[in-house]
Amino acid sequence: MAGSSRAPTPAVRAATPGDAVGDLVPAQVAEPSDTEELSLVLAEAAREGSTVAVRGGGTAQDWGPAPRALDLLVDTGKLSWIDHDPGDLVVEAGAGTPVAELYTHLAGKGQRLSYDPVRAGGTIGGAVATGASGPRRLLHGALRDLVIGMTVVRPDGVQARSGGRVVKNVAGYDLAKLHTGGYGTLGAIASVAFRLQPEPPALRLVEAEYGSRAEAERALAAVRESTVVPSAVEVSAGPDSALCLQVVVEGTHDGLRPRTEQAAQALGAHARVLGELPSQWGHRPSEGPLAWLSLPPAESVEAAARLGRRVRVGGCAPRGALHLSWPQGTPLEEIASVLEEARARPEWSVQLVRAHPEPVPAVDRWGRIPGLPLMRAVKDAFDPDHRFAPGRGTGGI
Amino acid sequence: MSLAENETATAPAALVPELRAICGEDGVLTDHSQRRTYENDGLAHHREVPGVVVLPTSAEQVAAVVRLCHERGVPFVPRGAGTGLSAGALPHAEGVLLVTSRMRRILEIDVANECAVVEPGVANLDITRAAAPHGYYYAPDPSSQQVCSVGGNVAENSGGAHCLKYGFTVNHVRGLDVVTPSGELVRLGGKAADAPGYDLIGAFVGSEGTLGVATRVVVNLTRTPEKTVTLLSAFESMDAGGGAVSSIIGEGVLPSAIEMMDALAIEAAEAAVACDYPAGAAAVLIVELDGPAAEVDAQVEQVEALCAAAGSFETRTASGAEERALVWKGRKSAFAAVGRISPAYIVQDGVVPRTALSEVLRRITELSADSGIRVANVFHAGDGNLHPLVLFDDTEPGAWDRAEEVSAKILDLCVEHGGSITGEHGVGVDKACKMPRMYGPDDLETFDLFRRSLDPEGTANPDKLLPTPRLCGEQPGVRRDVHPLVASGQATQF
């Protein structure tokens, strides 16, 4: 498998302090220029027994704990390409393709990847490996729902493809699901194929603030009972901001008018209608501690109202997929106490995604993880020596 | 105690007393004639009488049965309603067939959380029936939805005509209780989305019973659309119809379904159910639009104009439920109708990129002309999922081989054009040997690595999904006649 006919370790250089992941400076950085090279690099790392982590745009290197060890950092910057079939509403892109570049390309053809990025910058590989989705996941699905195929290089250097470039396909296991949100612990993503949506001709954002939880819950129920079919319904609240609901409606110009009215009616007399999304729409704060909170959707407003007194809360209300964000420098005890408050509720789960400095072991980053032994079994099969981003995955995988 | 001759006499015989202790006397079938009723699923060509059949009524019973199989190294095959079309529930002669049909309670319709909690034996359509009074439905709608089970849908990642807009089972499952191949009961996800860690739910859905048995499923409920309109548009050629599909998608319209039939399929449907499609049509397109009324109205006009521009000579629009059912009648009866004009046929489930549809259909026509074997095309055009029906007379010597050759060439065409060997029927036994056409040895080995990580002993539905030497000497499936469920009026197939 490792290329006898090719240079064994293409494009590897010594690392610089700028390549550090957390406090770890790797020995080497590889910048493979295609999947073949990525495969050679990882096969060599396997022979050497090197620990490996992958970096795309470097915008989420502080998501998840820093790996326990790091010999080789793989930079995907050169794995940047876009292969778009507009007529099929399908695109395949190299892992190192900047998300912004992909969006610009698709917009030129009147199409989009509908998950709404949660970070500025970053690459396709990074977005998929961290797996988080923004507001418009509501209508078209989260990132995991939009991935239709993936090529991954396994920790042993073997290239493996699952899925394909057609939307409808049930041949074989959907292994891309494991890598989406897998934090690079099962291999290095080389390329990803997505299903796309046409960019609707028009959009309205309807928003309103509420003085009480009950008022906001009534408004959310009214949205649910309507036939507006919103693309997004976001709830937010915080120590310095009111409880707020935002509804995004997309469609044809004619169709939008009655739907917007309906949405405004549901949100209440004080609802405002805007013609475009605010800048940074869907982006999570780029610094400070960050956590994911997932709960039964009917409790989204309650979570925002209750936890919002202590921490900034936002997210997709009808999916119960929220996030918590604290100002930089918030004491760990305060964060731990919020996590505890959330975990006291049945069916609420909360994971601390980012924290500086690394939380002391006393802070439980993940809480209970149903199915963890199965996850460990999968990890052991693909990466038996735990060389890939060891410790970065959920549950310390 | 020795068993009577017609009773289970192979490996699982030793398990019978313990299985009875778990599932009760009436929850274990050992009599040969009883076991024989489970010898095949919807792909009737593949038959095997199961060693023993168990009918558990709870997750605990399922777990205990699977644990017993695990301890004794006895294979088990999960089965829902047995409507699958890839022999994914083909029993194992020396194994336990684990049937979930007695686990059919809808545990909860939770409107506030927009989900339903159900046992695996619940029929797909029963979720919609229970949710409808609240203004909701369950979106995935495989053609067997009246009888097929949710557990089976989870195993196969079932789609249906409307998955073009609404996605597949995997996009609608929020939580799963799973009995793993070692017999452990694990709860993954629940009413909350985004369970922490690896997306095991995503990997489990569509795993065809090879990673365990789902015993409780939390599915999304979708708001019933305010308006639904079905258009029927007739064309003088398949090319023109294909062009209309491309322009509808290209213009940014997202119908909930786009279905297409060719002349032979239309002819068969007319003969069978007198669906009264426009005379002289070489292709008909059924386009369904749903959503907020104002959007649907705008899109109906747009689609009518696009069909006309693509050369349609007649477009009908149906809004009422009865009118719409009439439009769908011909399409839904097509498989059974073709069964009336041909003694036997092979049905394929290949997928091509939508933009390759016209090219692939032309090549299929050539294949048919060159071989003299008739092929009727009835398919989900919006997502490129073909269901070519390769017709032959099974009493004629060598006819099956010739039909199978055409059928295999069609699948090759799909793969050559960047498509898939199966869009919704699954791999099962039927297409396991065709997996190497689509995936390389490393890809297949990676699938196997994953499978073994969760089923190291290989007891969960062995010889399915991946090619094995034992399997790949066998013949793929032939449909001799109408599916028994279709014949009995319990299901439609389309």
TrEMBL record, chain B:
Region Disordered: start-end pairs: 458-477
Alphabetized UniProt keyword annotations: FAD, Flavoprotein
Segments forming domain FAD-binding PCMH-type: 46-224
PROSITE patterns referenced in this protein's UniProt entry, alphabetically: FAD_PCMH (PS51387)
DNA-binding keyword on record: no
Single GO molecular function: catalytic activity
Protein name: FAD-binding protein
